[in-house]
Every structure is written in structure tokens, then in C-alpha cells.
């Protein structure tokens, strides 16, 4: 099958106060249509940089990123971004928040309402259409953000630790909700997380990143049956995969830790 | 749940009553102290007349000396001067807040003017514009415009970057981002800046009227000083206080009406 998104030998170096900080170094991977791909890696490995590059917020220092064989140059509604921070606009109601993207892309006025209402239903916010975000919990605000992104019908969803700020229970519920939506809409999803469990539970494929400057250390085919449920987290296959990924991440984390670690702790990681 | 809500409403109501009670209590204490030191003869009436004397003087001012016209004159000047300041300061502040270049261009000039006390402009203003309404408006303008501009710029600079990124992710261009994110996001803060600067405006109008005027609250106060009518000075001060309070209330009330989504409110 053809690649939907292709990241080809991408380098990203940030410049600040005459200091060069390499964030990504020779990163390459591709995602197929309708694939759910997670990205995990040690903290500060450039996961968010990757999302921002694909979103088009800034350009790679070297290399290129292709979406449907077209080089990504600018931000655009063909990519839908869901951020980690709660980003619902406080001055807009839930319904108007969801309509926001449609307004930006100049979608016909009359249909905005219809589409927005559809997505209110999909994310289960019926009855909250006219509430302001201040009256919503973190999980609900993230659902608004998700609906707002989905409403413009992007080609690919870019999710940057979208459930990172939520408590464990809400997070689990959001994962199930996202999987259901994914099943229904069959979007291509690039999902960044620092949580190995979350990555495995959701994805078809897990990209494991190295420490900064980030590149792909390993690509893990998950191959667990769908629909996913709590049970798979106790299957042998899952546990093996998790061990494998966790080992890489721990090893990579150790490389980048700037603080001294006691020898006794280091031995634990050998 | 139901019980909880009722309880919540009870506390909410109690909080409001308490708020009003404390608000009144402050004034009661003030008047009590005033009465105590004047009725007992502790302070001479020339320096501080009794509350009754002030009340009588106030009635006389309104009935026989057209004090209402002076009040209206002051309100008119401050309103006009402040509206002009706001109309220029808000767009300018937004521009400064948005772009680094314009900040470099306008920012230092605005800050420079800001450090000059508005009162020091009065002689110049009289020279240029006479002692009529326009001169007063000019002083109000000079006194509030630079601050307002910088306050608005600051509000705009603090717009949540994440909100801007959301708009950008949909491919929004700068003009759209300003219209759909920067401005709506800044409005509550701008409204608050207006509220604060309107209060300052009251200070400047009185200063301007004290120096040279043929009408206005400040004029009444300075006339009273000339004829040693201390009670009229007190009346003038009280009226300014009340007008300031009303201005503040209007801003606060309209804030709640305009921005029902705002999370700003009680901290404890």
C-alpha cells in the first residue's frame, strides 16, 4: 500500500542565542492510509518537534515531509492537530468551538451548524452545546478539541500527547473513544505519547525514538487484535512488546540524563 | 446532587449579602469617625465641617448654585477625552502587541510620554487650547492614552500561544488569526484596562479644572477654597467618589454581561 505520510531524512536544528540545538537527526518513517501510528520516546526526544514539523508550523532544517506525495510547506487543514494543552477557546460555546475550523476554511455557513452538531454527538457532548469551556472538565475540553479538529475532515490527525494532562480513568475512556472514532472515520493517525501502554493499546505500529537528537530507533508492529480491550494488556504478546519498547526507552533515557545517577540505580537498568 | 446545589446556592447568596454588608460597613465606619471628631468639636469646622453642615451645603449647591451643571460639565469632558483616548489607544495597543516592529517604532515614544505627568501639560494645554472643554479633554487624553496603549499591548502580548497555534493549524492567515483569536481573546482584558484608566481619568479632570476652569467639579472645589467654604470642598470630593464608584460599577456590570465566559472572579 502507498504511503500517506512520508518523513524522509529529516533534521531539525533550533537556533537560540547563537547556540545550535539539534532536535531531530535523520528521522525517517512512513505511515500508510488509515494506519494508527504511535510515537514514543524518552522525554525531550523531539516528539513534539516532529508533530510541529508535520503540522507545518516550521520547516525541517534538512530533509522533507510528504503528505499524499506533496511536500509539506505550511500549516493546513488537511492535517488536524490536537494539542496536549486544553485549547478550547473560552469565549466560544462548545458548538462554536467545534465550528471554528470550518469557519477558518470558509466552509459554507449553513452546513457548519449541521456538521458541528454531528461531531457533538460523535464525541458525546450532547446537551453541552451551549456551555462555555469554563464549565467543562479537562476530558470534555479535549473532546471539544477533538471534535473541532475532526469537523474539518483532515487527511491525517496529528495528536501531541492529547490525553497527557488527564487522570488515568478519563484517559482510558478517551482512548476507547478515540479508537471508536478511528474505526468509524478511518482516519490516518499519528499519535505522540510518552506512555508505552497508551502507545501499544492504540496503535497498529509503534515508532520508538532515540534520545535527543531524535531519530527512529525501532518500529514495532503491534499486531494485537481489534477491537482492543483491557484484556489484551495481560496477554503474553502485549507484555513482550511492552518489555521490548520499555528497554529501548530506558536505555535511551539514560544517555540523555544530565543529572548524576547513583551506581546502584544504573545497575538496575543493565 | 440536589441537596448539594441548594447548599451551594445558599452559600452563594450568603456570600453576596456579606459582600454588600461589608461594603456598607466601610462607609459607616468612615462617617462614624467623621462625626466623632466634628460634633465633639475636636476639629474646627473651618478644617472639617460636621456631616450635617456638609449635607446642608450640598443641598444649597444643588438648589441655588447649579451644581448639576458643573457635574455634567466634568462628566462630559472626561467622557469625550476618554473615548478619544480609547479609540486611538485600543487599535494602537493591539498593533504594538502583535508586531515586534511596531513595538520598536511606537513603544519607546509612548513610554516616553507616559513618564511625563499629565499635570505638567496643563500650562502648555492652556497656551494651545485655552481653558475650555477642549483643553480638559486634551489633559484627560494625555493622562490616559499612553497607559491605556501599553495596557492593551500587554493584554494582546499575553494571548495564549496555543490558541494561535490552533488557528494556524487550520491554515489561518495572520489577518484571520487577529480577527478570530487575538481580538476576542483580548477583549475582557481590554475592558478591564478601560475600567482602570477611567478611574485615573477622574483624577486628571479634577486637576485640570483646579488649575483653570469656569465650570466643573474641580472649579467648584477651588472656588470653595478661595471663600473658605470647606463644606463645598467635601461635597465635591464625595461627588467625585460617587461618580468614580458608578463608573466602576458600570464597567464591572458590563464585564459580566459582555464576557459571561470569563473565569475571572473570586479567588477565595
What is the alpha-carbon Rg of chain A in Å? 19 Å
User: What number of domains of chain A?
Assistant: 1
Order of helices and strands of chain B: HHHHHHHHHH
As a whole number of angstroms, the C-alpha radius of gyration of chain B is 23 Å
N-to-C SSE string of chain A, H for helix and E for strand: EEEHEEEHHHEHEHEEHH
Which structural class do the helices and strands of chain A define?
alpha/beta
Number of DSSP E strands of chain B: 0
Q: Kindly report the CATH topology of chain A.
A: Rossmann fold
How many separate domains make up the residues of chain B?
Answer: 2
CATH architecture level-2 label of the largest domain in chain B: Orthogonal Bundle
Please tally the helical runs of chain A, counting DSSP H or I stretches of 4 or more residues.
8
Estimate percent helicity of chain B: over 70%
The pLDDT mean of chain A sits at: 93
Please estimate the helix content of chain A: 25-40%
Strand order of the largest sheet of chain A: 6-7-8-3-9-10
Low-confidence stretches of chain B: none
- Outline of chain B: flat
The biggest sheet of chain A, with number of strands, parallel, antiparallel or mixed sense and barrel status, is:
6 strands, mixed
Notable traits:
heterodimer; A: 270 residues; alpha/beta; Rossmann fold; six-stranded mixed sheet; four-stranded antiparallel sheet; 10 strands; 24% strand; globular; B: 268 residues; mainly alpha; MetI-like fold; 2 domains; 10 helices; flat
Amino acid at each position: 500500500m502507498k504511503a500517506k505520510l512520508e518523513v524522509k531524512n529529516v533534521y531539525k536544528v533550533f537556533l537560540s542565542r547563537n547556540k545550535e540545538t539539534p532536535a531531530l537527526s535523520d528521522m525517517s518513517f512512513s505511515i500508510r492510509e488509515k494506519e494508527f501510528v504511535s510515537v514514543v520516546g524518552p522525554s525531550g526526544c523531539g516528539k513534539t518537534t516532529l508533530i510541529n514539523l508535520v503540522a507545518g508550523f516550521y520547516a525541517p532544517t534538512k530533509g522533507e515531509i510528504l503528505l499524499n506525495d506533496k511536500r509539506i510547506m505550511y500549516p493546513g487543514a488537511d492535517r488536524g492537530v490536537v494539542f496536549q494543552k486544553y485549547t478550547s477557546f473560552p469565549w466560544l460555546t462548545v458548538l462554536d468551538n467545534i465550528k471554528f475550523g470550518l469557519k477558518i476554511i470558509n466552509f459554507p455557513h449553513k452546513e457548519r451548524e449541521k456538521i458541528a452538531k454531528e461531531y457533538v454527538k460523535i464525541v458525546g457532548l450532547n446537551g453541552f452545546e451551549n456551555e462555555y469551556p469554563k464549565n467543562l472538565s479537562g476530558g470534555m475540553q479535549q473532546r471539544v478539541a477533538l471534535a473541532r479538529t475532526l469537523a474539518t475532515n483532515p487527511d491525517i490527525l496529528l495528536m501531541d500527547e492529547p490525553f497527557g494532562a488527564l487522570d488515568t480513568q478519563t484517559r482510558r475512556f478517551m482512548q476507547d473513544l478515540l479508537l471508536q472514532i478511528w474505526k468509524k472515520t478511518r482516519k490516518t493517525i499519528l499519535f505522540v505519547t510518552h506512555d508505552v501502554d497508551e502507545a501499544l493499546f492504540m496503535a497498529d505500529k509503534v515508532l520508538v525514538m532515540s534520545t535527543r537528537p531524535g531519530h527512529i530507533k525501532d518500529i514495532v508492529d503491534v499486531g494485537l487484535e481489534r477491537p482492543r480491550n483491557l484484556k489484551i494488556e495481560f496477554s503474553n504478546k502485549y507484555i513482550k512488546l511492552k518489555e521490548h519498547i520499555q528497554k529501548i526507552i530506558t536505555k535511551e533515557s539514560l544517555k540523555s540524563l544530565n543529572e548524576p545517577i547513583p551506581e546502584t540505580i544504573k545497575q538496575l537498568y543493565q | 446532587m440536589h441537596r448539594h446545589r441548594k447548599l451551594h446556592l445558599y452559600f452563594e447568596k450568603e456570600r453576596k449579602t456579606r459582600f454588600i454588608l461589608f461594603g456598607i460597613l466601610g462607609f459607616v465606619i468612615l462617617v462614624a469617625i467623621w462625626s466623632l471628631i466634628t460634633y465633639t468639636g475636636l476639629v474646627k469646622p473651618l478644617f472639617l465641617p460636621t456631616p450635617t453642615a456638609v449635607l446642608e451645603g450640598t443641598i444649597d449647591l444643588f438648589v441655588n448654585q447649579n451644581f448639576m451643571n458643573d457635574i455634567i460639565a466634568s462628566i462630559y469632558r472626561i467622557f469625550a477625552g476618554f473615548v478619544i483616548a480609547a479609540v486611538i489607544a485600543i487599535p494602537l495597543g493591539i498593533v504594538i502587541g502583535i508586531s515586534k516592529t511596531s513595538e520598536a517604532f511606537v513603544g519607546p515614544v509612548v513610554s516616553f510620554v507616559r513618564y511625563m505627568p499629565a499635570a505638567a501639560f496643563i500650562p502648555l494645554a492652556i497656551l494651545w487650547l485655552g481653558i475650555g472643554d477642549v483643553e480638559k479633554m486634551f489633559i484627560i487624553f494625555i493622562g490616559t492614552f499612553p497607559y491605556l496603549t501599553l495596557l492593551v499591548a500587554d493584554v494582546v502580548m499575553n494571548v495564549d500561544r496555543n490558541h494561535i497555534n490552533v488557528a494556524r493549524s487550520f491554515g489561518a492567515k495572520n489577518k484571520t488569526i487577529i480577527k478570530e483569536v487575538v481580538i476576542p481573546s483580548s477583549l475582557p482584558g481590554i475592558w478591564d484596562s478601560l475600567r482602570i484608566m477611567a478611574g485615573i481619568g477622574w483624577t486628571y479632570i479634577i486637576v485640570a479644572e483646579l488649575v483653570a476652569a469656569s465650570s466643573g467639579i474641580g472649579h467648584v472645589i477651588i472656588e470653595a477654597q478661595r471663600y473658605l467654604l470647606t463644606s463645598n470642598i467635601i461635597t465635591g470630593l464625595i461627588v467625585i467618589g460617587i461618580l468614580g464608584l458608578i463608573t466602576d460599577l458600570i464597567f464591572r456590570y458590563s464585564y459580566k454581561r459582555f464576557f459571561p465566559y470569563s473565569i475571572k472572579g473570586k479567588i477565595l
